[in-house]
Amino acid sequence: MIFRRSTRANVVRGAAYVALSLALPAAVGCGSSSEEGPAIETVTVSGALGALTCTATPEAVLAQGMNAFSLLLSDKATGAPVDGASIEVTTWMPSMSHYTEGEQVMPMGEGAYHIESVSLVMAGDWEVVYAITSGSLNDTCTFEYPIP
User: Fold this and answer.
1) Domains identified in the chain, total number
2) What's the sign of the alpha-carbon dihedral 86, 42, 109, 53?
3) By C-alpha distance, which of 140, 143, 137, 33 is closest to 85?
4) What range does the domain containing 124 cover?
């Protein structure tokens, strides 16, 4: 997939993509059955410092190897989308002390970001940690994922 610098059409398209990726799991349900396979689950967390609300959606069923996410950021106090954030992504496997960095973050507009090259190198429980800075807002959001 190729991403170009934002134009108004790309920002609108990106916002529509994020809205669809957030709405689709709710529309089809978050449960899974043996016939359907694993579900893609949207998760919302409060930042560790209480400044941000972060919503992450995997773009496919998570698996060992490279993964991608949609991330939506909002100011916890006002609910306003957080644009122009600097985001550092780290994956961490606490049981083995494995971590990776170097994920690619692409702003999509209206508080939405596309995160790719998220490396989850082996089966087990992983944390994906987003360290976020935007103006006076600083926070860290952590998501936990079991990888089969």
Assistant:
1) 1
2) negative
3) 137
4) 8-147
